[in-house]
Amino acid sequence: MLASPEIRSLLRRTRRNPLAVVGLAMVGFVLVFSLLLPLVLPFDPNQMNVRNALQPPGPVHLLGTDQFGRDLLARLAHGGIISLQVGFAVTLLSVLVGVGLGALSGFAGGATDAAIMRVMDALMAFPGLLLAIALVAVFGGTMTAIVVALTIVGVPRFARVVRATVMQRKESDYVTAAVALGKRPWKVLFQDILPNCSGPIIVQATLKFPGAILGEAGLSFLGLGLPPPAPSWGRMLQESRAFMEVAPNAAILSGLAIFITVLGFNLLGDGLRDVLDPRSPRSRS
Amino acid sequence: MLKYTLRRLLQLVPVLLILSVLVFSLLHMVPGNPIDVLMGEGHSDPVVEAALRERYGLDRPLPVQYWTWLTNILSGDFGTSMYSREPILKLILERFPNTLLLALASAVVALAISLPAGIIAALYQNRLPDFGAMAVALAGISIPNFWFGILLVLLFSQYLGWLPSMGYVSPAEDFWTAMKHLILPAVTLGTAMAANLTRLIRAEMIEQLSQDYVRTARAKGLGERVIVGVHVLKNAMIPTVTIIGIQFGGLLEGAVLTEVIFAWPGIGRLAVDAVYERDYPLIQGVVLVAAIVYVAVNLIVDISYRYLDPRVKLD
Q1: What share of chain B is helix, strand, coil (3-state, %, to 5)?
Q2: To probe the interface with A, which of B12, B92, B147, B256 has the most A CB atoms within 10 Å?
Q3: Do A223 and B14 touch (CB under 8 A)?
Q4: For the complex shown, is ipTM > 0.85?
Q5: pLDDT digits (tens, 9 = 90+) for B194-249
């Protein structure tokens, strides 16, 4: 399924799309920054040294230190791990649940479809962050709670996109042929329909990833993310606000880290959408 | 028209019912006993517990509890806040106009940026102004709203000293001071919306510019200014209005963080404060009201579609 012609041609066209290439480069930078940099940095992200607090960038602490004298570069790099973990987990779960519900809805139709879609409609009526806040307030600020809350917020959009695509593909000739040949419905769904829905699913997933990272940053900015001393970017930004006048570097850098990560994934997602969707604004021109 | 409105209202009934079940379940999803939640941890008085159980109806089966809760809400009784002991509906109604003011001001900022940017990008499609506008829009979508707000405070309050960094003043009290307090929050929230809108307006303008009526207008010698300003823009605004409606949910969402940064006393901040106080009934109330408002706004947008574009078939 991974080596389907659709995916291979997708990879080829992605390489020719400047947006996607820039996005890919930025995502690569973020991955190296958060996954490899902590291996070579000599500082523990949670090691306090109050005498060394709020240092400006210098030769020892390249980006300076925070209010407890912790190395900012180390904290930013470790914060990246948290953001990427949340992004990855939420995207994966949203794809699994969203594709499952969407495929079921679009394929089964009728009452099943109506029931699933009404629940999705209801979930979509909640302002996403507000719902996530309420859920995290209920379940507490653990990684699982954050991931579950952001997934619940993210699933409806996936389900809708997949449902629409499945319904469209269901009418294709190759599906009619497969059904006529006497293939079982679930085999048709998994072997013929879903692999041909990979385009919209990939696009939606690349857009969900930055959304999840922004969501986690927003939650931890509100103090509802992982508890201290976890170096989450949102919390770092929140904590640095009190020292903004004397040491603006922490506030600027932690926000910049979120910004670069989200922008990279958005560029990649936008590029992929241009490649995959002939009706998207840019490729229509 | 009336038939369509009625049908849309009927379709909303199941959505609103599911929505209410979800919100009702919130309090019951809290790990442990709802009484622990209501009384706080470490209580040990069985008499008080029994009294609370009866008062909140927790001794009855869940469906009965839900029904009581729902009928209370339908009659306007959202319960009382556990923290301030005030009626929840009163707290929400007090704060709601502030959020509405912020949302409207943000929408004005968003349109002031996105209309010219989207039109210019479409007219100069695939040329420098277009790439510029699209790059800024993508950056605008990716920038964490709360970080942007903090940067604005850093620049306009701390370094330049032009605007207050936070707080709210009622426009009825002192209009100009109120406006000064409104600018930074509205710009913070408005730019986030502007980024999406710019992309949308551009796409719609491009779509409309390729239509036959534009060619006809050009062929009969109409000036480009009239074609774009009158015909194309009018048609491009139809889907834009829908998106503004959909974005309203995004505005409410963004309002949460914006209100916290600027200490703006709206419902977003009310919700966050409720979370800090573990005031679950209040969280329930705010979430429910926000969702209902969103559903209502989208209904109004759908119906207003008909007026903007008589060709739209409503079914």
Answers
A1: 75, 0, 20
A2: B147
A3: no
A4: no
A5: 888 888 888 888 887 777 787 888 888 777 777 777 778 777 777 777 777 767 76
